[in-house]
Amino acid sequence: MVSKLSIVLLLGALADVWAAELYTDKYDNIDIDEILNNDRMYKNYFNCVMGNGKCTPDGLELKAKIPEALQTECAKCSDKQKKGAEKVLRFIINQKKDDYKLLEEKFDPEGVYRKKYEAQKKLAEEGKPIEY
Fold it and tell me: Which residue positions does the secretion signal occupy (predicted)?
């Protein structure tokens, strides 16, 4: 007979495994609007991600996770991280078109993800919510 304690321990272990599969939430409280609305801060983060400048710890984390997040459609992102990614993507698509092209060249030179995310890009351009 399986004891209640065994079930509780199993559920706890499963919760730990599930939580370990998400990206860290250590930087989730960074003010994205402040970064996007401050050209100097935006450029610093953009240059970090592009490999053209110094990175803050959160910038390094972002830079390291972008390729995997693209491949997995942000499967390890929390809801808050997905909303933040949508906000940043929408901003870059609509306000920094040249930067968007540079990001595509760096992270999608073969055009693999361009096709995959074309619908999301169109929604962002139209001001509609991006679907994951």
Answer: 1-19
